[in-house]
């Protein structure tokens, strides 16, 4: 834990100080407005303005980070938040308070986005989930602690506003003196609200309801407490229990979400919420303060958990690379709900009394309960092993790249002192820079990949020569260096593959596969390029390279989420790879088909279809593609190849042999009887399996038809002879 936290201590310290002041301001403003005699509906309107600022901050934060940078944005927002809270203390009129609340919400969203992207850039794929949890715990702990600062000075005094301003200003210091540099921010993908709604209606609706419930509850709860005689330290304890519930309840809800049907868990959560909301006014009327604290903790915990539950429900239906875009849309939906929540709750409380806050909660929760029930009837639940996991997450106005469910984007290279010197030298003298890096790698081979990636971004440096120089100093790092070069300069990947297959004929197989795997969108193109350079002289290596690439693809499919696995369309990838490589090396068509099918058995049928089509095309003597004219030798060649193929399938992939045989018969009915005979002679294929498949495929009917035609021909011959 200490090792994980050490690089981020100053960043987390800045975040803690900021959220500590924010926690104090959240309880201070409603209590102060109540003390000043502001009407309830005006109070609700002022408090709703925070979410308006959050919405604006969530939208513009990434643009500002790209233009201005992390440190400047954090410093600006810390300063503006300090000004906003001080002006709120000096001029507590509703209009001024509303404006300053917008500023505060905007700045908090921007600072959270700053910290999150900074942490995301510095984290690794293995520890980013842990860092996310630590960051969330830091936020909630600071908010919890901020409630107790309310007792430092009188409510009517400006001192508490000054303390908030000090905390906001002080939060700038640790991040400014940090040695870490803010990362470069790239454009993030987007997804329309309608698209997200079509993918996951329940995820979108529950996220919106969470905004109404959570913002309405947390903003109006201090007013409810004050109206019921809870003041001073008791008020801090009351609000502290609410925030602690939002922290503690994440753990049992996470267990339930991951081990049971999530929609049933959500239904149970909302039903429990309704019961608890009914109990709070009764407990308050009976003066049961401790039980009221417990009920409030459970209520806020249940409401707070609706947001991560909504995210998990939505992520079940989106691709991994779309998760950030979906998260952004959910945050927008949540923000819209949180704008409405405080104002609607204040209107209800103004009309029916402070206890009507929980009646308002109940009405909203009942409609959500009804919607969950409808969705459960309309759509069947996913199997437990296909449900997305629950990750502790608070709606902080940020799209978190720390979430381990998002696609991890590894940094091209780490900007060390050696890297900066090498890049500076490369801009002036590329050859000298390569020689310098080669010397550095000889001294420290573990730094080879990072230095190679850095220099590959310099246009004047030939990537092939760079690879040769660095691998000569650290040959054991050749694969890692190739991957690093590809990740840093993907546009030069084809040049690197061409160079390696020409200059490294004794070891290119593993290296080319590593490069192709590093570029999944263009992997087949790179494999085809390598095949063109090696097919004639290294046919066995071509098969070895194909097998390794397809095996890696198969392994990656096992690790994918179900929705990503379906979208990957691995059968299409396998067929395209086979067709591309067969075009390069047609004499290896059968061996390539066997290799691809054995490495990815589920693609056997598609590959067999492509193989038999290639076989027919190669023997077809007609110039018209729609016609099929075969000589006797061609027919014999096709039948011989088909029999060899199905024999190979029976010996190596018997579970797919029947389907493959049916595919051959569909394309070339003349082999039907041979196919059936081979399958029936196999000890690895049960009769029941063959019979079941034959019922679904035309294999049996074709054989029977051929036999009937043969019998009819013999009868005709007998009649003619007589």
UniProtKB/TrEMBL annotation:
The chain crosses the membrane at residues 7-31, 43-61, 73-92, 131-152, 158-178, 199-217, 237-256, 265-285, 291-311, 323-344, 356-374. Keywords: Cell membrane, Membrane, Transmembrane, Transmembrane helix, Transport. The keyword Acetylation does not apply. InterPro entries: MFS (IPR011701), MFS_dom (IPR020846), MFS_sugar_transport-like (IPR005828), MFS_trans_sf (IPR036259), MFS_YcaD-like (IPR047200). PROSITE patterns: MFS (PS50850). It is found in: Cell membrane. One of its GO terms (cellular component) is plasma membrane. One of its GO terms (molecular function) is transmembrane transporter activity. It is a multi-pass membrane protein. The keyword Transmembrane applies. Pfam families: MFS_1, Sugar_tr. PANTHER family: TRANSPORTER MFS SUPERFAMILY. This is MFS transporter.
């Amino acid at each position: 834990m200490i090792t994980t936290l050490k690089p981020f201590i100053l960043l987390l310290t800045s975040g803690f100080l900021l959220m500590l002041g924010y926690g104090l301001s959240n309880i201070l403003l409603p209590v102060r407005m109540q003390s000043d005699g502001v009407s309830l509906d005006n109070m609700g309107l002022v408090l709703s303005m925070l979410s308006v600022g959050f919405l604006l901050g969530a939208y513009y934060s990434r643009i500002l980070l790209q233009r201005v940078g992390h440190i400047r944005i954090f410093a600006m927002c810390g300063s503006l938040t300090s000004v906003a809270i001080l002006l709120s203390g000096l001029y507590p009129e509703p209009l001024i308070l509303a404006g300053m609340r917008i500023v505060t919400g905007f700045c908090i969203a921007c600072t959270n986005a700053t910290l999150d992207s900074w942490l995301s850039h510095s984290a690794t794929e293995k520890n980013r989930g842990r860092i996310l949890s630590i960051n969330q715990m830091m936020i909630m702990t600071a908010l919890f602690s901020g409630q107790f600062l309310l007792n430092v000075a009188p409510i009517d005094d400006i001192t508490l506003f000054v303390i908030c301003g000090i905390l906001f200003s002080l939060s700038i210091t640790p991040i400014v003196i940090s040695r870490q540099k803010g990362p470069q921010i790239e454009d993030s993908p987007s997804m329309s609200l309608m698209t997200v709604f079509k993918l996951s209606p329940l995820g979108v609706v529950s996220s919106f309801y969470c905004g109404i419930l959570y913002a309405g509850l947390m903003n109006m709860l201090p007013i409810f407490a004050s109206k019921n005689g809870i003041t001073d330290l008791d008020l801090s304890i009351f609000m502290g229990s609410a925030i602690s519930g939002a922290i503690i309840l994440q753990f049992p809800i996470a267990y339930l979400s991951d081990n049971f049907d999530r929609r049933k868990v959500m239904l149970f959560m909302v039903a429990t919420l309704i019961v608890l909301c009914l109990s709070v006014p009764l407990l308050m009327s009976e003066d049961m303060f401790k039980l009221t604290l417990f009920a409030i903790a459970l209520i806020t915990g249940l409401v707070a958990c609706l947001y991560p539950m909504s995210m998990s429900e939505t992520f079940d239906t989106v691709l991994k690379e779309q998760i950030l875009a979906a998260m952004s849309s959910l945050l927008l939906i949540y923000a819209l709900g949180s704008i409405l929540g405080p104002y609607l709750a204040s209107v209800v409380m103004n009309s029916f009394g402070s206890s009507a806050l929980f009646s308002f909660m109940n009405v909203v929760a009942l409609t959500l309960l009804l919607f969950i029930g409808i969705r459960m009837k309309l759509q069947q639940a996913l199997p437990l092993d296909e449900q997305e996991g629950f990750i502790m997450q608070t709606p902080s106005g940020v799209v978190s790249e720390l979430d381990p469910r998002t696609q991890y984007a590894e940094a091209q290279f780490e900007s060390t002192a050696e890297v900066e010197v090498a890049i500076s030298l490369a801009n002036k003298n590329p050859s000298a820079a390569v020689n310098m890096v080669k010397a550095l790698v000889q001294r420290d081979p573990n730094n080879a990949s990072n230095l190679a990636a850095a220099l590959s971004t310099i246009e004047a440096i030939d990537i092939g020569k760079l690879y040769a120089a660095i691998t000569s100093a650290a040959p054991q790092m050749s694969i890692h260096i190739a991957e690093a070069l590809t990740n840093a300069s993907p546009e030069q990947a084809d040049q690197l593959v061409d160079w390696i297959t020409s200059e490294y004929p004794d070891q290119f197989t593993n290296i080319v596969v590593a490069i192709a795997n590093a570029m999944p969108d263009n992997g087949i193109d790179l494999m085809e390029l390598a095949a063109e350079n090696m097919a004639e002289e290294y046919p066995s290596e071509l098969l070895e390279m194909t097998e390794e690439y397809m095996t890696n693809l198969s392994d990656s499919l096992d690790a994918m989420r179900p929705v990503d696995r379906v979208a990957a369309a691995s059968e299409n990838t396998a067929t395209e790879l086979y067709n591309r490589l067969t075009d390069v090396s047609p004499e290896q068509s059968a061996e390539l088909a066997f290799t691809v099918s054995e490495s990815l058995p589920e693609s056997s049928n598609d590959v067999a279809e492509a193989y038999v089509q290639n076989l027919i095309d190669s023997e077809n003597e007609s110039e018209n593609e729609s016609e099929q004219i075969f000589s006797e030798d061609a027919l014999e060649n096709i039948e011989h190849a088909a029999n060899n193929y199905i024999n190979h399938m029976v010996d190596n992939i018997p579970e797919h042999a029947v389907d493959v045989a049916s595919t051959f018969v569909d394309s070339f009915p003349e082999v039907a009887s041979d196919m059936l005979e081979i399958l029936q002679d196999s000890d690895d294929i049960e009769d029941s399996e063959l019979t079941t498949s034959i019922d679904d495929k035309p294999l049996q009917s074709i054989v029977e038809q051929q036999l009937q035609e043969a019998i009819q021909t013999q009868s005709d011959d007998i009649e003619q002879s007589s």
